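Troubleshooting: if your tokenizer reports a length mismatch, compare your output against this known-good record of 619 residues.
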Amino acid sequence: MNLSRTLLVALFIIGVSGFSYDELSRQYDCKLQLDSAGNYTMFYTIDEDDKLLSIAIHVQTTGWVGLGLSPTGQMPGSDVVIGWVDNSGASFFQDRYAFDRTIPRYDGSQDWKFIGSSEDNGITTFLFERLFETCDEGDIAISAGDTTHLIYSYHSEDPIDNQHISQHEFQGVKTVNLFGQLQNTADPPANLQYVDVVNANVTVPSKDTTYLCTLIELPSQFKNKTHYLVKTAAQITPDSARHVHHMLLYLCDGFNLTGDPAVGVSQECNGISQKILPCRSSIVIASWAVSGNDFTYPADIALPIGGADKIHTHYLLEMHYDNPDKISGIVDSSGMRLYFSDKPRQEVAGIVTLGKLATGHMIIPPGVQRYTVRGFCANQCTNANFPEEGITVFANLLHTHTAGAELILRHIRNGTELKPIDVNRNYDFNYQQINIIPSAKILKGDEMILECVYNTGHRNTTTFGGESTSDEMCISVLYYYPATNLSNCLSYTIPSAYAEWMSTYLLPEQYYAIAAAAVNNISSARPVFDSLDWSEENYRMLERIGQTSEQVNVCVSGKGKNYGSTFASSKPPLIEVPFEGEGQCVKGSNGSPSVVLVIHSSNLVMIIVMCLLTIYSFP
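Known-good structure output:
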């Protein structure tokens, strides 16, 4: 715990009146408004050195308050704390575990540690903390990168006693990545210019999946003066929101498309002209996926757009619409709002897409609880595109579709695996957010492996790589500086690599049917795959081939006339020295139900003792 927060705690304990929202904002690194009404705010700080999560909750109530970590966003299985301050000023705080949808049971291992509390002017505030890992089966581990479901609740009245807690009057769930939030900083200036890059009343086709591309001209002021992108915010049409799956906004860098007849016209992306097609592999300047929040760049980083020395005339907005019920008449005007400053910043941002190319050669068998696919970015690509000093990663978006369960972006240097750049072992398709990454340096010649784990236990048909939500992807959108010309570094498995598996597990007629389909798109042989006996031995061999066999690395870079792709076949990066995470759990202390008394300011002896402890806790 840092010195300023220790002083804050001391003031709580000696009975000083509750601290304001602004004071908590200053003392904790991050804050989250958990409810739409603004009545429940959570402040927190992550101490990665001590493996400690410190939390303050600030709730507009004089009754009991609750907060929990949930594996699913539902109450069963949740790791919960409940607290209240009674009329005498005594504080009650308990670590509990929810087995079902009833009052959570008291946890015999009290690992959430009470720090302080107050009730003042209708606001109840509690401070508490917990180690990331406690070895308690009733606790949910706190892991970097994982999607976290925060469940919150409160009541207008205090419980009668420890055993009789009334059902909540207010409750909800907030899905976040605790480690991926930008620390509390001043909001971007209110006078920032912004530009809306949106579709204009587009009719969504009545089919399962549609990718629509719209060419949009940049405002005239961008053509002569550079503007600096500092924030992006999705603008989603409410009536069509459930059909908007994700969007990418490309800057057509180096392509002068002035006067092109496609400007302002929305058309399916696979039908755009050859003149516009390179935009789709150009610079991604904004991305959004289901339930994503606004993204604000760190204070010293921006992405420059426009200027007399650049050929920036158009954006290309790519929208993925999901319409599994094939509903007609859906009209959408969603897109992105871009906030710009006219002042340059210290670092120039770039964005690159990594992972597995979403083709039919990405095969995921049905009925498997855990199946791993890997795509990689080879050292040939980073050698050719990264500067000598390397690049620094500051944010990332991990993306799969509905079968995705875990993702890890691995980082390899000369055969040694370094700390993963990004990890999410509790991936939730319905919450996809750009996460802030503690500075990770990728050097020229380094390699990356994106590892995606899928759960198809609920499926009885084979899943292939593809653009439909029922297909799968394995993608990482990496934000970094300084900018380079690299826009994509992806890989795909060579079809011939499957020959050994096919000859082992397929009948001759199945073999020939799949081999014929593999010439174009192997997923066209779906009925043959679905008819296979997917024994564990069978699918594990297929998984191993997909992970270890030769792949084609697709490296896309350049701009304008210099735009191009290189295709090089190579084995996946060799990891000679794996990264060893801490993986260490520290046993929490046992406890029993107790009442923690707030010490009032009249107790001068305790005040003096507390102040001395505060002072001498720090050299």
